[in-house]
Structure formats: structure tokens, C-alpha cells
Amino acid sequence: MLRTLAVENYRSLRDLVLPLSQLTVVTGANGSGKSSLYRALRLLAGAARNGAVAALAREGGLPSTLWAGPEAIGRAVRSGRSPVQGTVRKQAVGLRLGFAGDDFGYALDLGLPIPSPSLFSLDPEVKRECVWSGPALTPRGLLADRAGPTVRTRDANGAWSDDPHSIGLTDSVLSEFADPRTTPELLLVRERIRSWRFYDQFRTDASAPARESRIGTRTPVLDHDGGDLAAALCTIQESGDATALASAVDDAFPRATVEVTATDGRFELRFHQHGLLRPLAAAELSDGTLRYLLWVAALLSPRPPELLVLNEPETSLHPDLLPALAALITAAARKTQLVVVSHSQVLVRALEGTGATLLELEKDFGATVLSGQGRLDRPSWHWPKR
Fold it and tell me: What is the pLDDT of residues 119-129, one digit of tens each?
């Protein structure tokens, strides 16, 4: 399980170190940094697929995602005696992402390239990258140590390789050196990160993929767009926890049931609701009903990931459905680690009542901070130096 998440210089996340538990709920006012935290997690997951550079490009490039405030905020600024203003930088420009768990940790430091005439001169480069064993970064626990284009890895006996390896400045150690024969630990870390799953506000409009019938195949993992909803629900009924599915539907819609039919291999959803003479097809369901069924399929997956991250799952749901959603999330957290980003106080209170860890974000001079967290309250974390 991940115990610590660290982000530095990503948008409003100037210097954030958060504790994580089996079920972590992140909340806060609009603009407090919840979405930035969610995107930082996705960016961290992309590093395991060599996708960090492409992900940053979609956000406008590294310069547009870096912390836009001053490097340090002094006492004079905080007391109001002096305005917020820039100063001469003392540290290298960099975006840093990392996590630490019970058995492994990972840190990634992305920076600007050396100026050159290349048209790719804005591609961020990996300045430092480390993978270690144990809950904290220590020289003895290092499994892979990368500085710029040079990588050192340990062999099966724990000794450093005789000759350092070379790596592309935009490539990740996790994708280039995860070999089951020479570096099985790196392979394990990479596959764990690649198993992370993210769901962010399913579409429920009239032309949403979840409303259409399609050829069905066994679907243990719901697609991010929800287009294979019927197949995913059928897979849960046949190969997963059919009782939990029926209970989740009944909790939200008393005496309602879900059925999946197939015609020439095309799967269609049928929603039987008490009081109606015929079942409703997916195209007829309200936005809230369809979205709830999508969360049922995502959270009851027969193949739970190492980490499941939900971004504002309460969207389009009536407050009366949120206790049922909270119960569904709580049940899923028994099989996988969950991070839920939400601004719904109804959902937050329901989850907090089940023992979830509540993290409330707020702004301090433009920077996102964890409410009530002092310097001594932060989890232990050290970034590898360049």
C-alpha cells in the first residue's frame, strides 16, 4: 500500500507531502488544488509507460505546469509588510513526483533541457530518477539510481552493476530497465504502477458510449469511457461478486435489478425498476442512474488494481444516492487502495464515518497545503538531489 505521496512545483502543488491510507478522501473548496493532485497522480502513473513527456505536452508543456509563484515566501510577505514578488532563484527548476509504500518507493525529477536549436527544445528531461526498497529513500535501499543519461542498477546479489547504463533523457528507468532476469524489483514496481486505475466523470449525455449497445466480450475492467458497461456488469454477474452487484443496485434503487441481454453478440443493458411494466434500456436511463451503474461496474471489478483513483464521483448524482455510493466505495476499499477526490460534503461525511482518512486542501498564498499540517506532521520524505 502507498503510504506517502509527494509533489513539488506542479501547478499549485508547490511542496506537498501527503499521508495515504487504504481509503483516502481528498476534499477542499473550489480552486484548492484537488484537480491538480488528481492530475499529478495520473502524471506519475504515466511515467511507468514513458508517457510523462506526452502528458505534460497535452497540458501545455513543462513551463506551463510549473509552480508560478515565488521560490520562497518570507515572513515580511506573510505579515503583509512586503508584496509577493519574484527573487533570484537558488534552486534548479524542476517538477518532482514520488511515492513511498510499505515495500518500494519511487521519485522522478523532471527539468528543462539545456538550450539548443532543436525544435524539441521544450521537451522536459528526466534529471533524476530513483527506485528503492523500504518505506524511505536510503543509499542502502536504492535499487536503481539515474542521474541524467546515466543509470546504475543492482544485480541479483545486491551489488551495483559494473558499468553504468545509458538512457534517453526523456525515457524512464521503469520502462527501459525493468527486466525479470536482472532487475525483477523494477519490473514489479512498474507493473504495480501500470495497474493503477483512474476514473474521471463518465459521460452520460445522449450520445455517451455507455448508452450504446456493442459486441460484448468478458470485461473484468471497465473502460475509462464506460462504453463496455453492459459487458462489465455481465462479467461481474458471471465471474465476480453478483451478490454485491445486486445489493449495490438495491441500496440505491429499492427492488430494482439489472439484466444484460445479448442479440447476435451485441450486449444491451436492461434496468428493471419497481413499478414499471417494462425494463429501461441504457438509452432511457437518467444521467444519475446511468452514472451510478457505471460506478458499480468500476468499483466491483473482478480484477481490482493496486490503486484506484476516483475524481468527483458524486457528479450528477442526487444526494439520496450518495450513501449507497459511499457504501460501494467502502466495500471496494477492502480489496484495493482507494483515493477519492470530492467536494460533496454528504459523500465526504459518509466516507469519513467509515474510518477513511480525510485530507482537506486549502490555499496559502496561492500554494496548496494540507489543512492543519505543520512541518512536524508531514510524513518523512527526501527528494534525491541532482
Answer: 787 788 999 99
> What span, in angstroms and rounded, lies between the C-alpha atoms of 24 and 258?
30
220 with 85, same domain?
no
Sequence letter at residue 12 = S
Of 304, 325, 345, the residue that ends a domain is 304
pTM of the model: 0.91
Q: Is 185 helix (H, G, I), strand (E, B) or coil?
A: helix
Residue of 129, 125, 132, 110 lying closest to 183 (CA atoms) = 132
pLDDT bin (cut points 50, 70, 90) of residue 92 is: confident
State which residues form the domain around 44.
2-196+360-377
Helix (H, G, I), strand (E, B) or coil at 368: strand
Among 259, 288, 304, which residue terminates a domain? 304
Instruction: Report yes or no on 385 lying in a domain.
Output: no
Q: In one letter, which amino acid is 356?
A: A
Q: First and final CA of the chain: distance in angstroms?
A: 28
Mean pLDDT of the chain: 91
Q: Do 52 and 23 share a structural domain? A: yes
**Residue 191 shares a structural domain with residue 252:** no
For residues 286 and 293, the answer to whether their CB atoms sit within 8 Å is: no
Structurally, the chain folds into a number of domains equal to: 2
- Asked if residue 85 has pLDDT above 70, the reply is no
47 and 169 within one domain: yes
The CA distance from 288 to 210, in Å, is 13
CA dihedral angle for residue 378, residue 23, residue 42, residue 295, rounded to 10 degrees: -160
Is residue 335 in some structural domain? no
CA distance 31 to 12: 9
Q: Are residues 155 and 250 in the same domain?
A: no
Burial 193-222 (b: 16+ CB within 10 A, else e): bbbbbbbbebbbeeebbbbebeebeebebb
Residues 6+ apart with CB under 8 A from 173: 129, 131, 144, 146, 151, 167, 186
